[in-house]
Design brief:
Elements: H1 2-16, E1 20-23, E2 30-34, H2 38-42, E3 49-52, E4 58-60, E5 94-98, E6 101-105, H3 108-122, H4 129-136, H5 141-144, H6 149-160
Antiparallel strand pairs: 1-2, 2-3, 3-4, 5-6
Helix pairs in contact: 3-6
The structure holds zinc ion.
Length: 162
Amino acid sequence: MEERSKHTYQTLLYQFAKNILVVCPQCLEQAIVHTGDFEALKKSQYDIKVVCTSCGYNKTLEKISPRQEPKQKRGNVLIFGGPIDPFFHLPVWLQADFSGQTLWAYNLEHLEFLAEHIGAKLRERNTSPRMSRSIGARLPRWMTAADKREAVLKAIEKLKGK
Ligand SMILES: [Zn+2]
């Protein structure tokens, strides 16, 4: 059961990992990491690139094999689960400090998802236990703690306007 819900949250992160908003390494404005369809990534049909419309910075990721040993080549490791894009490891644009924790999302869709889920936790009585378990179990506790939810929701709303 534990393994299963872990897998569920990983899958969710993959789903949101397209058109990731990041900080441009050149001008510090908002840039976008285009990833295309993640299903395609699995077949090594990558066309992953980071593009900044402010300064024109753009870079295409070298093709990487999903089976490649992580230590073989620096910079080509996929990282999921932190406030950086999984491919170029640039800081995500949508992040904010929240009581010493980092609130972050890959894009507005992801942010919307977090807001909906935490909102649902606020209305827990109306949520089926099955749904709470599948996603909520994988969100950090500081985000879903009963006394923090409203403040987290406010912080998410603020991030949306960034
Ligand atoms: Zn730029």
